[in-house]
Specification:
By secondary structure, the chain is mainly α. The two termini are about 30 Å apart. It has helices spanning about 10-25, 30-40, 45-60, 70-100, 100-120, 125-135, 140-150, 155-185, 195-215, 230-235, 240-245, 255-290, 295-315, 325-345, 350-375, 385-410, 415-425, 425-435.
Length: about 425
């Protein structure tokens, strides 16, 4: 029996997403240096005003002052995720009507423009505006998932979702390394040093745009598109209403059982990412506070996590038969529980590494498998909407999770925070088992 071939467009999406994520992740190690730069050149007072709000939050939760820059970075990250939460279903809904290609190109142009603005950001307000534009343009990720769904069969869909996971893993391995090299270089520079890394991000984004225009062919033919852009936008904008978001209100035509399963899948995905993103963000606090890690050691830690994820997604998840997707997702959810316990109780580096290893394995299994399961729902005309809703749920979880985790971390300590997270993570795994 011959194995079904994967549509070549899957690899076009993989390369496009990888280029996008390299540009996106390279800014992460640069944030502390960028914030120091804009603090010194705060000519309009925005940085000063935001700093005062961060100090209020820092004092409220009892975080040491030296972590203000991390909290500041967390604020920018939450803003970015919240904008994705707003944009993803709108982008997906529009693409269901006018096709994926035009909407994806628009997103990529927006991302490119955000990096151009970064290169021109002589003050902090322009930099924040650049991040704002980047956030609302990030619908390209949920669109990538919708494209995979368009061109995949039940047998090959898991491969496509695994490749998206691999693109994320590689992006979060290589991008921060590029950013770290620029950060080291920037220490010996004065003036507007950020222009060079910003121009490199512009180069990556422009390469992505040109590559996509040249090699991507429309995957949603006119006869399979939704009819009304007005109706799609109405449905998409309604998802800012949280009740309608979690109820998957815009998705129509499903029988009652499938609708119930889709909603269950959505809440499992949200709860998992909400708690997961809290650990991911506060890991910086933990390694600084307990293990006295330097920025370089932290970079190596995240590099190792990303490498493990890429190896598992490329070597195992990509070859996973469709009938084992749910079981693999459940196994991954079970693994995140001892991961939180190990990290929470870690007083030695060995227990921390064991927890982080389980953390990486769980992430590599859970996210692509849940996405593959979600992509089975909705008509051809609604795949973009379904994947947009899932992307929105993920973005909302990533916007809120770090805030609650930071409050808990500094209020009751890392051990109670992570052990409580482990207990709450029993809910999604037990729910998915009944799916």
């Amino acid at each position: 029996m011959t194995q079904e071939k994967v549509n070549p467009t899957v690899y076009v999406v993989f390369i496009s997403l990888l280029l996008d994520l390299l540009a996106f992740t390279m800014i992460l190690p640069l944030l502390p240096s960028l914030l120091d730069h804009y603090k010194a050149k705060d000519t309009i007072g925005l940085y000063s005003w935001l700093s005062k709000q961060i100090v209020v939050f820092q004092e409220l939760v009892g975080a040491p002052e030296r972590f203000n820059s991390v909290l500041f970075g967390g604020f920018l990250g939450s803003m970015f995720s919240f904008l994705q939460f707003v944009a993803a279903p709108i982008v997906g809904g529009i693409s269901d009507v006018i096709g994926r290609r035009k909407v994806m190109i628009t997103c990529l142009v927006g991302v490119l423009f955000s990096y151009i603005l970064w290169a021109l950001s002589s003050n902090f307000a322009i930099f924040v505006f650049a991040r704002f534009i980047g956030g609302i343009s990030k619908g390209n990720v949920s669109l990538s998932m919708a494209i995979i769904t368009d061109i995949s069969t039940m047998k090959t869909r898991g491969i496509g979702m695994a490749l998206i996971g691999i693109a994320f893993s590689l992006g979060f391995i290589i991008g921060p390394v590029i950013g770290a090299l620029f950060a080291v270089w920037a220490k010996s520079k004065t003036g507007d040093w950020y222009i060079l890394p910003a121009l490199f991000a512009v180069f990556l984004a422009l390469s992505d745009l040109v590559f996509f225009i040249l090699f991507f062919k429309e995957t949603l033919p006119k006869e399979k598109r939704a009819n009304s852009i007005k109706e799609s936008l109405k449905n998409a904008t309604a998802l800012i209403n949280l009740k309608q978001l979690f109820d998957f209100t815009p998705v129509t035509g499903l029988n009652e059982q499938d609708f119930r399963k889709l909603k269950l899948l959505g809440i499992v995905y949200f709860v998992y990412l909400f708690i997961y993103s809290g650990l991911e963000f506060t890991l910086t606090f933990l390694t600084h506070h307990v293990f006295h890690y330097t920025s370089t050691q932290q970079g190596m830690m995240f590099f190792s996590i990303g490498l493990i994820m890429a190896l598992i997604q490329g070597g195992y998840v990509r070859k996973l038969p469709s009938n084992k997707t749910k079981k693999t997702a459940v196994n991954g959810l079970w693994l995140i529980i001892p991961s939180f316990i190990c990290v929470g109780l870690a007083s030695s580096i060995h227990l921390l590494y064991l927890g982080l290893f389980l953390f990486a394995v769980s992430t590599a299994l859970v996210v692509p498998c849940l996405m593959t399961m979600a992509s089975e729902y909705g008509s051809v005309q609604q795949k973009g909407t379904v994947m947009g809703i899932f992307r929105s749920l993920g973005a909302l979880a990533r916007a809120l999770g770090p805030i609650l985790a930071s409050v808990s971390f500094w209020s009751v300590g890392s051990t109670i925070t992570y052990l409580t997270g482990a207990v709450f993570l029993l809910w999604p795994v037990l729910k998915l088992k009944k799916y």
